Amino acid sequence: MRHVALTLASLTALTVACGDSAADGDTLGTEGGVVTLDGSGTGDEQSTGDGDGDPGDGDGDACTNPCGDDCCAANEACDQDTLECVLDCGDTDPCGAAPGECCSAGQICYVGQCVMPGGPCAELGCATQTESDCEEDEICDGDLGLCVPDLADETCTFMPEPGVFDPVPRWSWGVRKPRNCMADSDCQKEEICDNGSCAVTWPHHVPGDDDYPAHHQAMASPMVADLDGDCIPEVIFNSYEPSSWQDNGILRAVHGDTGEKLWSLGDPAWRSDGSAIPAIGDIDYDGDLEIINVSADQHLHLIDHQGNPIWKTANVLAANLVSGAPALANFDLLGDAEIAHGREIYASDGSLLWGGNGGLGTNSAYATLSCVADLDGDLRPELIGGGTAYTFTGTVGVDFTGSTMWQSGGDGYCGVADFQLDGIPEVVVVRGGNIVILDGPTGAQLATFAIPGGGSGGAPNIADFDGDGFPDIGSAGGSRYVVVQFDGVDTMTKLWDAVTKDVSSNRTGSSVFDFDGDGRSEVIYADEWYLRIYPGVEPDCALNPVGPSCDQNMTDAEILFIDITSSGTRVEYPVVADVDGDFKAELVVSTNNNFSQGNIGDAGIEVFEDRLDNWVGTLPIWNQHTYHVTNVDAAGQIPVVESNNWEFPMSKPYNSYRRNSQGGIDGCAPDLVAQDLEVVGMCIDDLELSVRICNQGCLGVGPGVDVTFSEADAGVLGTVQTTQAIPAGGCVKALLSVPLPGAAPFDVSVSVDDDGMGGDAFNECIEDNNEFGPVELCPTIG
Fold first, then answer.
1. CATH number of the structural domain spanning residue 741
2. Where are the residues of the annotated region Disordered (predicted)?
3. Which of 16, 301, 306, 517 is in the most buried spot, having the most CB atoms within 10 Å?
4. Which helix (H) or strand (E) segment is 18 a member of?
5. Could you tell me if residue 73 is inside a domain?
6. Domain boundary among 102, 129, 150
7. CA neighbor of 268 nearest in space, from 306, 228, 241
8. Is 0.85 topped by the overall pTM?
9. pLDDT tens digits for 526-537?
10. What is the radius of gyration, based on Cα positions, of the chain?
């Protein structure tokens, strides 16, 4: 037997020269790690081949494609870095986990699988930008600029325990009221007692010396919309100085994620009614939002999205009442949207189109809050001013005109819903201390209920408070907040009421939202002293059998949240919207302390979020006082033809008023995973890593997802945060560059929603799939 030691290079040369057999009929084999040429073929040598003594592929022939100690199959190639057989995909690497697959012509390797991309696209969507260039089952990958398969799973849900959440301030703006303390319990939520004074523990912004610092009070409801198109909504509100709350207001916009200034409109010629609530929307359909505000002298102003004044109406508003609010709708179903205020309709250029002579939408001569809804089913919206409904014909600029559709009793604040679930809307009017239900098409009075404790009554909010599938009504009086049910015929009965304090206006508004997604909407109400979140029903009433405290009297011991706030109160209410682009609900509250009735709290704007991440998803907009979801889309565009709130979406209609949406799927949640971990660069001085972070759930997440990279020997390499939103079904890349953590190769792993210390931020439908790897990167040669 002849033994010939061969190097890897000489083995390759020999194989190429000799083909499947040696020149003298000998075969190739190995013995003790040395390649041998065996002429006898006795079989007493240790072989790693196919039984003939050669590195073989199992067919009995000599190896034609050796790779180290292996012989690659016909569909494999030798990786010269690792000397391992891998799937031979030509000029591209195999796709997916070993052995992977070869992508066919036109396909790309995406999230570990071969996919056929769609057409080109501009960018991945976000909370405020939901339009897409891609097909229904596709989503845009911004890094590739291509449409790829949508990874969203609509069965991905997370249901928090009902009523379990912990609201904490995210940021605040304005001036804090000095408050002495001996302990943290003497302070507001999340404040600490620091050397005898309450101090904030969150970002707080005081208007600078060049930003009209005296105008730090806020009474009007703050609105929410993405003015600058950066996927992060803004909070827009009127502010005022204590001495002139009606006629010297400054309109402001601050970033919703931080509270920092976007712009302030301080021009003396464009001062506002500091207690008025603006309306926001793209009324000319050019892609940019406009703001309609009430001026200090009771005209309308149009302000563009950058804070520039555009026009002022020529005429004074009807009735000339402070603290009112415009509403936006397309009344002729053509061209630009129009502006409603009280019983008047204005064109997008500020010209008065029509004015009625009945109800204004005011309660005891206090603010004007008219509603818009299609009451007769002809697709064209009607205008509702308290007990009067106005209908319209013709085209703006040609023959547009209006008339009284019906008149039923006195003026008041309105809301619209389908209480009988028959497809026909009813109108709720709060006037003179009573809640009144009217038939939508005719105005016939169906039922009335006196608000306990007196007071004129605040604008109604409408939602399903008790989870029985039928809408209920909430309204605030002078000393009680009350929720009532309608039997669908002629009677309203009390579900519960609660003691409040609002002797100043006794017309304050409220809002509703199902924070925990249990089917029962919570009430958010701020009176002169406190901000409260009430459960939809008393806790004992939700038990089976009911508990002893189910007595129709909601006490502070039964509520979900209470914190010090203050207001002189007009018609404002707290707002629920996604203010920071994270697809989840936040709570926005205006506060003031310049009135004797309500002066125990701070002045400005406060935003709360849930520390436990249990608040469900919602829309990134609340654009007007009479907001009802279908009146505007997430980007702020006013629909040409509005879907009826009580009929849309068909599977589960909103059927509510002054309540934001929880989305189409109950408990929708994200599911964050890592894919496509790879090295960028040559692994010479730095280790540059790239990984796709994908959301396989049905609820998006905002920027700032923690992504931690680790190496088997070196430990944690670093933590980075994603820089853009990841909508449901989409992916973004996260990058990390660190000095080489030792000698290659490196076994790298990635953990999503991990701050590097084991902490996470998101409630996901699957919590045990955030890890990816390890993957061997920067392999050594040979």
1. 2.60.40.10
2. 29-55
3. 301
4. helix 8-18
5. yes
6. 102
7. 241
8. yes
9. 999 999 999 999
10. 33
